[in-house]
């Protein structure tokens, strides 16, 4: 082989380097070492725990910096008054996904602080909910009851109706039921509880018996009388809904 060819084959330029062709093995190692660690950590459970801990610490520090005299909206981080109970519950659920003793399983030293912060948030949410419910109940009297009707069950008259259409905005505490006929004194059948007398399908019922209230027997023997129903709350009664009742002749008592 000619000497010139041997010199070319023996020179460093004549060999292909296994590390990438530039003859510098250290550069390949250097490229591998500068991969960003954050990208790998975000894919590992350890990275996720680190991110959750960061969110937990942010909320913990925010709540712990608030004075004891801070209002419930400050504690919940609300920037404007909530318009509904559902909005408050949604905010509390979102906060509890970050600040909760269960979120400190891998960081037991934060469990106590997270528990205290969660209790403070929960108390603040309950306070706002009570204010909203009180405001809904006292904002205005409820509206008129809907679909007032009746049916007979033996010798008992069952009067039923549906709550006012605005019941979600103006809470109803009770219903006043009065029966009357021409020439007789109106007879109050009682105050029907809004919660305890509502059926599963949304009807409110009141039973009127001829032997129930004093004077009911006269109404039943007249066979035609009127029943009125008012929904009420702490602000007062709503409009009156009236129903005309026509009974078939009662069988004579033996």
Structure summary:
By secondary structure, this protein is an alpha+beta fold. Helix content is 37%, strand content 21%.
How do the strands and helices of this protein lay out in sequence?
Layout lengths: L2 H8 L14 H9 L3 H5 L3 H21 L6 H5 L8 H12 L14 H28 L7 E8 L2 E7 L11 E7 L6 E7 L10 E6 L6 H7 L1 E10 L2 E2 L3 E6 L8
Antiparallel strand pairs: 1-2, 2-5, 3-4, 3-6, 6-7, 6-8
Count of all domains? 2
Extended strand count: 8
Q: Could you name the CATH class of the largest domain?
A: Mainly Beta
The N- and C-terminal alpha carbons lie at a distance of 141 Å
Q: Report the total helices.
A: 8
**Which class of secondary structure composition applies to the elements?**
alpha+beta
Low-confidence segments: 27-36, 46-52
Level of helix content?
25-40%
| Main sheet: strands, sense, barrel | 5 strands, antiparallel
The topology string of helices and strands comes to HHHHHHHEEEEEHEEE
Gross CATH architecture of the largest domain: Sandwich
CATH topology of the largest domain: Immunoglobulin-like
Mean pLDDT: 78
Q: What is the approximate shape?
A: elongated
Cα Rg = 38 Å
Q: What percent strand?
A: 15-25%
CATH superfamily of the largest domain: Immunoglobulins
Domain J: 71-154
Protein name: J domain-containing protein
Organism: Perkinsus marinus (strain ATCC 50983 / TXsc)
Region (Disordered): 1-38
